Structures
1.
Amino acid sequence: PLQKQTAMLVRNLALLALALSLTLVVVHGLLRGDWLQALLAGIALAMALLPEEYPVVLTVFPALGARRLAREGVLTRRINAIETLGATTVLCTDKTGTLTENRMSVSRLVAGGVALDARADLATLPDGDLPEAFHALVEYSILASVVDPFDPMERAFHQLGERFLAGTEHLHRDWRLVQTYALSPALRAMAHVWAAPEGDRQVVAAKGAPEAVVELCHLDPVTQAGIAAAVDALAADGLRVLAVAQGRFDGQDWPAAEHDFDFTFVGLLGLSDPLRPQVPAAVAECRTAGIRVVMITGDYPVTARAIARQAGLAETSGALLSGEEMDTLDDAALRERMAAVSVCARIAPEQKLRIVQALKADGEVVAMTGDGVNDAPALRAAHVGIAMGARGTDVAREAASLVLLNDDFTAIVRGVRLGRRIFDNLRQSMSYILAVHVPIAGMALLPVLLGWPALLYPMHIALLELIIDPACSLAFENEPAASDVMQRPPRDAAAPLFGGATLWLAFLQGLGVLGVVLAAYAVSDQRLSEGEARAFAFATLVVANLALIFSNRSGTKSLWSALRTPNATLWIVIGLALALLTTALYLPWAIGVLRFGPLPAHELAMACGLGVLAVSWFETVKWFRRGRTDHV
């Protein structure tokens, strides 16, 4: 949107510059007969009107913004995401590894109707002294995992086995994995078939979502109800709950699906994954900033609700949507349902795309996190796709606009804050560029039309650009974030960068500078030589331009608050601008090139005073802006 708006603004200004420049050349040439001077005046007016700073700003701001984001742990892959990030209204985030630390440990064991609290009971048990009732549960949880695990959940099973089953017959390092059954959308469980060194009988171990494992075991309703109650009790504490089953199989003709095995239910494991300590504060900051956070997870709904409560998300039952419920909703119903949802549980990766589409259809600006191959369509469909850098796949990173280097949710919130800061500074810079071109264009045009000696030639415009370019790019880009940057609602992404009020207020600021400089030139032309009058007016224009920088950087605040706001780059630009002005006014060869006359020190002081006088006009304009804030 920003590129389109800027392209339209530049096109309109370019057409205006072309028309006025041609008109000035013709009028000047016909009135005075000096076509060379007419051509120079036309070129100067075209240079004054053409906003060549806009491409500079649109290059520097995103580039430096991407560098700042990298410092916050966010890698930018598509530069336009920086602009959109600050306008985000809904932030969809994974739970595991993003809101939580992805550092799992087994906290509860349930087997044979007996429960063991690992956090309390296991801590007091000596190694190798796990009650016999839980040996099979730990054994088959390991058999249902990969041999050399990288997943934190499976590593937790292996660590538990190494501590309590080492030296027993329950660890089978000499067994051979002969068949695997992966997780699928139809069945949230996986199974491994193992062959012992002796005999033809294979052992089958399965683990997965409790409802899926219960389905594999074909249990009676009473037993299912008891297991469901145990699952709810574990999940209510925010634990990720997995069920484990065992089976036997003879021969080599393995069935095509897990359902064809004869499974026996073994027990439940509850794994804790601590919430990142800074997440509740980050979620609260999003709420203050008008951003709705939606947690999307494949976990059990009760677990998801418990984690959401810890993170500070909505706790009402209506704020949770399950994957099964989503399958029953058409697109219109899903769009209506997502307007009040803060937690999505038992969500398959491919369902994320429907969530993004539903939110976008409701007019939201959506940021979506993801890490898997199946997350790629949702990441690409979101306004801002955010891939995980530590555990994400290459496919997810290629589809995303941003990459979280440390998978931390708070980095996203810092990125939103930075995105808002960048856009605020960009808008201030654009307003300054528009305002500063008004007096430059006016002083290139009006003296010629009024019959006065020309004030600005192309070399004067080029000299002014040496001040304007670093001011509009580096100085404004380094402006610190406003104190209320995360206390205001997201901006409308479709709203123009320059609304009617912003455009006219910038124009009024420029008219104030034009009036001061024009008056300075008119007065000095009566009492000074042509070169001295030109130098006097040029010094007034430069100082007024510097005052215009301070006025725009303070926004609607007072000038005094702007002076107290730290920005070392700005003061460097100001210092270099004054040094450049002094050089242009007093270096002999520069005086000759710029057609200046030797300006006495008291005249320079008077010119600087007139330039600073423009501040009073700026403050009047800002007072008008503050008074019209609600209307704007």
2.
Amino acid sequence: MTDNAKPGLAVIHIPEPLIKFAYGQTVEYPRDGLYLYGPDDDPAHQPNMRYGVIGTKEGVRRFKIWSQQVAGFIPIPTPSDRTRAIEPQHIPFPGFSQAFSAPWSVSPHEIIETIDPTELSTFLRIANRYEAIKEAVSLYVNRLIEAQNRLENPPSFWFVVIPEEVYKLGRPKSVVPKDERVLGSVSISKSRAGKLENEPSFFADENEEAEVYKYSRHFRRQLKARLLNDRVVTQIVRETTLTPSEFVSEKGRPLRPLEDPATVAWKLCTGAYYKAGGKPWQLADVRPGVCYVGLVYKHTDDDQKGKFACCAAQMFLTDGDGVVFRGALGPWYSADRKEYHLDAENAELLIAKVVEEYKRIHDGLAPTELFIHAKSAFGDDEWSGFAAACPEDTNLVGVQIRDAKDDLKVFRPGAYPVIRGTAVKLSERNAYLWTAGYAARLDTYMGPETPNPVQVKIVRGECSLDSVLTDVMGLTKVNFNSCLLNDRLPVTIRFANAVGEVLVSAPREGEPKLPFKYYI
């Protein structure tokens, strides 16, 4: 511990949480459980693995090559191949059907290969970046929505295969070289469009053009946002991920650093199984009746001065699945406190939706414990609204989780840093927790430098700090989009930005209550 550490601090260790798989078997590492036992799903109710793929003809061709690969065994890299070890403890991928006990069709059930690469490339180079991304996204969205409405039995989810230039040019800070820019059809400026929000023009064409500025300049976020109301689940994947051997330099070196094929298969296939409706694993040994809520606040790309922010709640249950509830748009950011806070009315409405959905899932039973996680603390009015929405017998607890501000480092003898799960208690309600660190199962630390802790503080309500720290550790292990040992942040905080970014990336139509899989 550094010289700045406070004397007399209590240091404890939170054991690595176990996760549960088929036959009630528990392990620490998701790939161990899937490889040995299979997912924690009822064999009689396996998810429908009907999937579609959309892309250019070349993109679909590359997807089919990858689909054939994941149908069979993919070995771990041999020592001679491991020149750039990304994950020291590799697990072979046994094949999709073997890992998930669900059939995998090498051929997609639906194929859309009519994305014109020339048209897509032209759209991406439109000088007005709002128009550029909206037109590029529309190539995919329009076809997906048409298929969703046309097909009697549409796919459970779609693989959206994108060329590398979509990743390169489809983000807010992407820059198109001047000699490659093309002129679009939108002539109205962003400042003029802003004025038209309050005072619409007499000219319908001008009002219509102004709509483009309501969409995000981020391809992935906008695509997800525009598909929410049509209930289309997507798994976006780059062509370079599917067939990396086809993207090499003149010297034969990969154009893009990529993990080994088995690791890529574990990550993409676990995400696919979850998005099809499966539960790859769930936390073991959890208290019954517990509900976790992560508060989400997000500005649009261009509103960073705190005028208005979108608020939502992510509800997570012990099986790791979640539902997103979109709340009110309002002036929730306090420039003085540099924190977000709802008013009492909107706080009550938001948590009331969460409690109602929990009761629906649990045959009318309310949660016995409801934990609200946020990066900021909770104001008096805000908390009174949360409390008003909770049943009398529900123990409501507010927990602040954020990166530790103090320059605190913990060291241990040997080559590796502090053990994951180490906690330094500052008081009975406040602790530093190392959710990243040396992991015994992997026999290494998956990080580039000495890990920093997160600060976990009980700011409202009553609960044992040890229980809260154990919960936080568990919630770092339910990211079904990665199949890693753990994330650094619990899922309630980790995906706050991802959910918020999608919520503000396109004009809102209604208040959909959707499972978490639509947003990631």
3.
Amino acid sequence: MVNFNLKFALFLLLLSSSLAKAQLKLPHLISEGLVLQRAQPNTLWGWANPGEMVRVSLQQKTYSVATNAEGKWQIKIPAQKASGPFEIHIESGSEQIDVRNVFFGDLWLCSGPSNMELPLSRVIERYPQILSEANPYIRQFTVPDRYAFDEPRDILSGGYWMLAQGKDLAQFSALGYFFAQEVYKATGVAIGLVNSALGGSPIEAWLSKESIKAFPKALKAYEEVLDPDFVRAALEKNEEIQTKWYSRLNETDAGLNQATKWYEPSLSLKSWDSLQLPFWYKNSSLAQHIGSVWFQKEIELKEAQLKGENLLRLGRVIDKDETFVNGVKVGEITYQYPPRRYTLNKGILKAGKNRISVRVTNTGERGGFLDDKPYFLITETDSIPLSGYWKYKKAAEMPPIEATEFIRWRPVGLYHQMISPLKHVAFKGVLWYQGESNADAPAAYARKMSHLISDWRSLFQNKSLPFYTVQLANYKAYSADPQESSWAELRLEQHRASTTNSNVFMASAIDLGEWNDIHPLAKKELGQRMAKQALSHSYNIKGLKAHHPFATSATIKKNTVVIHIKTDSNLIVKKSLEQSFSIADKSGDFKWASATIVGNDLHLKLPKDMQKPARVRYAYADNPKSSVYSENGLPLLPFDLELH
């Protein structure tokens, strides 16, 4: 027995030694379902034992290269026509890897913050059939959310290729998918989306450390995080702030600590006050409240309404909700942006009286339930409105939570970890939807965008890499008076970036937004606009009329301001022109001006008592009226022009 155990131990030692030498590896991107860019050379790369020969076989051809002293290798594959599916066979020594279901098609890099990340699962109510569709020729690789400040990284920490079918389809970037859908219809070739996006990220996070030197404030913010101790201390402080605040909240919340918990159906609500939902705290008796409040509503149901699953919709809540139905927790979302959409499993609801209990936590001055969002219960037979009067009671009073910082948004970090590892990849182009996180400080955004374009083109060794960008959507409350707007300034900076850099094209979302949601659902319409531009420029399909009309100059002729518009089809009015255009004299006091379309020019009548107009604006607001379009359905771009 001793000899057997000794022999077995030696066998395991030899086996582990053999496995330790097994070094043939591929990056996560080069995996089953891969899309490679057609009509361009492609690089395949990976790792093997130092000095070992690596052979790559595909399309009846074999390519070989020796690894360097670090065990790295890369092979350049000549340009190929659209084709697939096929296998890539890679071998080194006694090891081999087969990468299956590979296509040569078109590969698009999708980047920015949450409006690029936003998955199809979030827009299904606007496009209810979308998840029943399937197209295995559209694929997505999602780059893991990571950051690195010291040096650019070579390796992604994970990721795999998903096909646009089944459960995976729900995870696709909605904007990316709708773009790909249109391009696939027009070309019939496989479309790959590399989704490298992170919610909330400012443009500075996607710049290289060389580019950030041009922006002193951003450079200082970057230099701070080069100190690991600074980063560690910041992360620990954030954790401490969150832990202490929420621990104290939970300890003092009466709804969690009384003998009868406030989510239990037996709880008496006789002493509770009432408020009409939806509402903002600032407009109610909760105006000064920070902490937790419990809300209760009772509804009567019949047996016929209880078959199968039911759906509870609670719009959007600021900041956090925990939702119970008949004492059963059915959902929880910890921040304000996602819609509250909770599936109720069979058996939770009952015939007769049912109680919905919602614990709402706000960490600062803003709190409440957003207007113009869906509040209802969908049963087997009915859609039951949940707006109206709810019972409520304060549970815990708290001071505002101390501000914390998202270190991952600091300059350069996302470029190093989410873009740099893609440096060997050949892309057809870039889809970029970003700006919300820079809207409060729009100055120099166009310069930053120019640096980003230069950085990425240099990294991917493609001086003419196309960029298709998005101009920010309309957002926030509508103003009946002309207003100054940092969102409007940011839109002008985005337009400036698209006109001062070659091979950059911008689609506007100025009419596709929602006043109460920074994540508008109209991603299909926006994706179609971007796709039309790409089909016109990157695919050279003629006659698409893909461009937004835009103002080129404004002049004064007697008492009329004439704005000259460049457009590829006639101008039309879709909505009233009232409160769309404003004019100011040298004092900068803007007043609304009436407008008419004359040919493809706009004629504005001077406001009363204005003698010397100096500037003219259109759609210049957080949430402006967008009234002028071209006949191809694209809105006139916002402008702010000096008068001559």
4.
Amino acid sequence: MNGSLRSLPLILMMLCPLAAQVPEYDIWISGGRILDGAGNPWFVGDIGIKGDTIAYAGPSHAATARQRLDARGKTVTPGFIDTHSHGRRGVFEVPSAENQIRQGVTTIIEGPDGGSPLPIGEYLSRFSKVPATTNFGLMVGQGTVRERVVGLQDRKATPEEIETMRGLVRQAMREGAFGLSTGLFYLPGTFTPTEEVIELAKVAGELGGIYTSHMRDEAAKIVDSVKELIRIGEEGNIPAQITHHKAIGGVNWGKSVETLRLVEEARRRGVDISIDQYPYTASSTGLAALAPKWALEGGQKSFKERAGSPEARARMKVDIVRNLKEDRGSGNLKNVVFASCVGDRSLSGKSLRDLTGSDDFEKAAEHVVRLQELGGCSCIYHAISEDDVERIMRYPGTMIASDGGIPVFGVDVPHPRNYGTFARVLGRYVRERKVLTLEDAVRRMTSLPAIRFRIVDRGLLRPGMKADVAVFDAATVIDKSEFGKPHQYAEGFTHVLVNGIPVLVDGKMLPARPGRALYGPGYGK
């Protein structure tokens, strides 16, 4: 009797061998064209995932798994890494980040253009407690650091203030920042001498970070701005990146020839420089970009006080008119479009020409001052050349980054880059215009940003890497978001996984929120 009972499990195993097997993998993605992220040619194969990690990536074979995802006829890649995101507020308002997931983005890096939370560790701790779909990392913003120590004043920092700022950068790096960002076009970065930036860059570099910059000028002085970035990288002993590289204003189109030459020359002599870019011929930033920096010093209250002086207001308008004709307006008031305005939400989607009712640049400048007095606007500026976009995109050291955020669907009229950046590259610039090969485009969205930002466990489909995976149809993937009608998700993505958890399956969003806070190379040092 007892012997019979003891032999029962063995008998059952013999009769039902499959019931006794423990699945080899949690998820098995089968039959897709695998692009590993390194730029290698695709091959047909399978991806096996255990927990949050890739356990197999190779030729197709039989395997058991708890869940199987069909990728036949599709392209399988690492999840995309967006290294220039403005999603730190949106990730709490819209934790699904559907605009990102539907274009294959599984990791975003925030804190660009010199602006970031402080302390870094406190924000990352808060993020970790609120379930989100994407992974999330941070840069430390030089502008935020300077504003805390020096304020918004146009003056040099004292040696004691510089040392305080170095300490804040060091703390941020040890709390998990991936590097130092600047917005030398914006307040208070614009008031910062190059030498001061170098001192902060040295600290970030010592702790393994990267330096990224919205340069001091992307229009008439763009060449000088690239030279400054190269100097900061070289003297700061830190990898440096031109973020959202472009040449603004018709009179400056074509200057990317010179800027790319400078980057390549710097690399040949050993300066570690790279680029990121979004694939559009329009930028997006505040209406204050049209105003002279002296008028903005001290912040909004000071601007309103200056604007109340007839003499100062007239001076402001002279600079604004020049900017509208030569820079972000590129000579046409239709090129300045309101995304959202604090003082008048009804302006969303309208141009400065619509508001002015004519081509009167003086009148338009008065509207700019008035709207800035009310609190300002977010604007879209159609002032970039398609030739420059494609020339910069072809450069081998250029990665793709959105400069977008996580918008509330249907609210205001934001830049289409929020919804379409990565899908647009794959659809328009790979499939239609053949500016890049598919293999190279994927490299620029995965392993290149991972290497540059030292995200060591993502960006490749290799055993041991975290299982961030995107599956899409290379024959149909496309951005749908348009200027004027931006709230449209990209099409063509079938499956997306974050840390081994499916968040998009068969084109449908799932409720899972497996995103994690990511920590930079100086964390805990």
